[in-house]
Amino acid sequence: MTFRHISDIADEMSGRGARTKKRVGARLKAITIHGRSFASRTEAANFYGVSVTTISRAERRGRLDYVGTGNEHKKKPVTIAGVDYPSRQAAASELGVCSSVMTHYLQVRDILAKQENDQ
Hints:
It is a single chain. The protein has helices at 6-14, 41-48, 52-61, 88-95, 99-118, and strands at residues 31-33, 36-38, 78-80, 83-85. By secondary structure, the chain is mostly helical. It folds into two domains: 31-72, no CATH class; 75-118, no CATH class. The strands form two sheets. The protein has a two-stranded antiparallel sheet. A two-stranded antiparallel sheet has the order 3-4. β1 and β2 (36-38) form a beta hairpin. The longest helix is centred in the last third of the chain and has 20 residues, at 99-118.
């Protein structure tokens, strides 16, 4: 005995015949990112290690030049007590505090420095 979908049975009973599901694939559209051409968004997404949705959104927003660059989270160097660290996280790890404490410290330090400059 084989199982059939209820909609197929209803279609047969109404005389319309079984439904055939045809999935029309996404229209292949060539796309160029960073001077490199791809046959589809999927191919580009796989190459840059991002989702197809990311590619589509970037295309809609006119920001394909940012795809796969990781520009959102650049590390900023920090100097604390004369010691340079590559990032807040690195400073927090080396000083043995959590990153939120380090961020708060740096914010307070900047506010105090600004107040001293204003006087």
